[in-house]
Amino acid sequence: MIKTYKYRLYPTRKQTEKLEWTLETCRILYNSALVDRNRHYEETDKGLSRIDQQKILVRDKKNIEYLMNIHSQVLQDVLFRVEKAYKAFFRRIKEKNGKAGYPRFKQTGRYDSITYTQSGFGIDDVGKLSLSKIGHIKLKLHRSINGIIKTCNVKKEIDKWYVCFSVEYTPVTKKQTVIRKHVGIDVGIKSFAALSSGKVIKNPKHLIQAEERLIKKQRRLSNKKKGSNNRKKARLSVAKAHKRVSNQRKDFQHKLSRKIISNYDAVGVEDLRIKNMVKNHCLAKSISDAGWGQFLSFMAYKAEEAGILFLRVNPRNTSKACSVPGCGYIYKDMTLSVREWTCPSCGTTHERDVNAAAEIDNILVRKIRQELPEYTLGEISSMDDIVSSNTYALKSILSKNQEAPSVRAG
Ligand SMILES: [Zn+2]
To answer: What is the 266 CA–ligand 1 centroid distance (Å)?
Structure first.
């Protein structure tokens, strides 16, 4: 499995200039690769592939001196990104019946990272990050790397520099095959998530407050005169606030996912990939889904590390089916505004999200019984541990106010 390690970099003034220059040159290369693709298509009616563009790049390198001052893999990675933008464009055409925004030019400052895809980077004897064509940059290795480093991505975030290594490693943990405690989790609209144990996890207060502050800052920015110094300052302040909010959100999701994974032997969630095929017109719902995606990926890798079963189940009807064993009534006309309902078949009153989580847990159990012979169900069921040990632990995460944002990547 692949894991990302992120560290802060401390380049000297000279190195910063070099990094900035490299980003800017890559940005220009990216934009001209887009132009080339367009032009080629208009002139010949045929597409230009990444391989074609690589050949052009190799030829250009002989004539254009400044391209020689950038590592060849970093240059090639630019073409990979162009290819990726095109693939996404064609996918959007397919999905939206022909209507899709064309891949856009990167404006100044919008190209913010470079990638060494295989070599050209390393950590030297004195613990600095050595980057071919750039130099040896001081870095803070706050935790050690476990596994084989595959790629090295150097990134500028507002006014700070970071390096992200993507590392491949094989978890050594043995799989937990006897499942005693299992749980289904559903995304909430008002809350962050609901557990089949009955626990509803709220969005932490400090996060909501930080988001509100961000909205205020954004409003202030839009009132500033265009091109003014004050506007520049306000924009930087908005960008920083944005970063802070996203760090806090990550921090919250890391802690919560760690807690859940360490408390259960099997975890079931909705499969977002299937879910996204069903068009979603509710804005609040799609925003909560967006945050949910990151949370699921955190849980997925933590589960793999811990040898815990993590299953994504088909979300069809999970929010509409009564989760009471043996009932299975489906509330067909349920809208998003329904928060609580009483099953006309068995008479149980359900809190909407908790019921959905319980239904996901039912599917999880069914899958373990019918499709996963290597697993066995132990004695304690998820309903037994309703609020025992977990509640306090979760509460303590959620009440903890304003922690220093972590710089760890997902
Ligand atoms: Zn029922």
So the answer is: 25
In tens, the pLDDT along 186-215 reads 977 678 899 999 999 988 888 888 888 888
Burial zone of 303 (CB within 10 Å; 0-12 exposed, 13-18 middle, 19+ buried): buried
155 shares its domain with 260: no
> Quick one: 63 and 184 in the same domain?
no
CB 317, CB 330: distance < 8 Å: yes
**CA of 214: how far to CAs of 66, 82, 177, 191, 295, in Å?**
40, 32, 45, 20, 21
Task: In whole angstroms, give the CA distance from residue 288 to residue 190.
Answer: 9
Structural domain contains residue 304: yes
Tell me: do 183 and 117 sit in the same domain.
no
Alpha-carbon span 61 to 275, nearest angstrom: 46
**Do both 154 and 184 map to the same domain?**
no
pLDDT digits over 55-88, tens only?
999 888 888 888 889 999 999 999 999 999 999 8
**Statement: residue 27 has pLDDT above 60:** yes
Q: How many structural domains are present in the chain?
A: 2
**Ligand 1: centre distance to CA 364 (Å):** 19
- Which residues are the active-site residues? 186, 270, 353
pLDDT of 407 strictly over 80: no
Same-domain status, 37 and 139:
yes
Count the alpha carbons within 13 Å of 113 in the hemisphere toward its beta carbon: 17
CA 141 to ligand 1 centroid distance, Å: 54
Range of the structural domain that residue 338 is part of: 178-203+244-399
Distance 378 CA to ligand 1 centre (A): 26
What is the CA(324)–ligand 1 centre distance, in A? 5
Instruction: Evaluate whether residue 107 is within a structural domain.
Output: yes
* 55 shares its domain with 156: yes
Q: Is the predicted pLDDT of residue 98 greater than 80, yes or no?
A: no
pTM (2 decimals)? 0.70
